[in-house]
Amino acid sequence: MKYNYIGFFLFFLIFYSCGNNEPQQQKNFNPNDYKDPLVAANKHLVKAEEKQIEDYISRYNWDMRETGTGLRYLIYKKGNGEKAEKNKIAKINFTVSLINGNVCYSSDIEGYKEFFIGRGGVETGIEEGILLLRVGDKAKFIIPSHLAFGLLGDQDKIPTRATLIYDIELLELK
Known about the structure:
This protein is an alpha+beta fold. The protein has helices at 2-19, 32-60, 107-110, 124-130; strands at residues 65-66, 72-77, 89-98, 103-106, 113-116, 138-143, 164-173.
């Protein structure tokens, strides 16, 4: 008896879904209708992130420099080693936190990090910032979301559109 009801339900569902043959009126989709509002929304979000970064720098009274891409950096301990350059392997100690202070990753837990400079595999802001350092340097980087993980975050501890604060020490170049 139970199976009769299930069979009747399935028959009704199939019959009903196939019976509606009236043509659907389709709206014309024009991407240009959405362009201006999306550009305006993005400009607003970029300005809000810039303000948040400036407030953060002001709160800590850091004397940071800014690159053309928007990366902020402060080298607070000068090393005397070799200058970082592309195609070298950088070995770093690091702490990554969100602008609200929450620590996401740290070499204290994850271990030091190694990467080929200029070959990707790390955030664009780290690729850019590491080239400003010498072995032994310690620096703070403020990486805007467009130089970090952007709209998606890292799908783990870093949320969407997150500004990242890196504290880095360049340990070695190979």
